[in-house]
């Protein structure tokens, strides 16, 4: 079970800063939004069940999506894969972001299990049309959201249930996220006036 403590950069420990601590945010909306292009990132190494990437619709924050290194209803384990959801989303990497559509085979990504990070090369990027669910979490006036595939193979981290299929999540559940503030240029943090929804 992933803990709630703040994780700091230290050696090969997780590289989340204090401002980018993993937190559990309450789910306030879950809705099906139709089909679109989904991005699976396949790595050249075996992933642990607790390994994952943080993705999000906006710069307000990112939701952790776990590897497919587990059997799910109708799906065998894919121990090399993380299903990152919709093509348009941000992928959070330390203090930078990139769009999922920018990921190329051969590039290295930081995969985290909250206790340590690994830089793992991408072997393949697999893009297919799939149905989506939009998950929103609220903290005060800030909304963190992600658009993820409607599939039993997609797992998030819930505070008390642990690794949970997206289809089993309910309003009021609290899932692992990183909060942020919008404002980036080519992935680098900048100060600007911006509205993202």
Number of contiguous helices: 0
How much of the residues is beta strand, in percent? over 45%
The total count of strands amounts to 14
Query: What percentage of residues falls in helices of 4 or more residues?
Result: under 10%
Low-confidence stretches: 1-19
Summing up helix and strand content along with how strands pair, one would put the structural category as: mainly beta
Brief synopsis:
By secondary structure, the protein is mostly beta strands. It has strands spanning 22-43, 52-56, 61-68, 78-86, 90-93, 96-99, 108-112, 117-139, 142-149, 155-158, 162-165, 174-179, 184-185, 188-189.
Describe this structure in words.
This protein has 197 residues and is mainly beta. The chain contains no helices and 14 strands. Strands 1, 2, 3, 4, 5, 6, 7, 8, 9 and 12 form a 10-stranded antiparallel sheet that branches. It has a two-stranded antiparallel sheet with strand order 10-11. Strand 5 (90-93) and strand 6 form a beta hairpin. The chain is globular and about 40 Å long. Residues 1-19 have low confidence and may be disordered.
Key traits:
197 residues, 0% helix, single chain, 10-stranded antiparallel beta sheet, two-stranded antiparallel ribbon, mainly beta
Helix and strand arrangement:
Elements (H helix, E strand, L loop, with lengths): L21 E22 L8 E5 L4 E8 L9 E9 L3 E4 L2 E4 L8 E5 L4 E23 L2 E8 L5 E4 L3 E4 L8 E6 L4 E2 L2 E2 L8
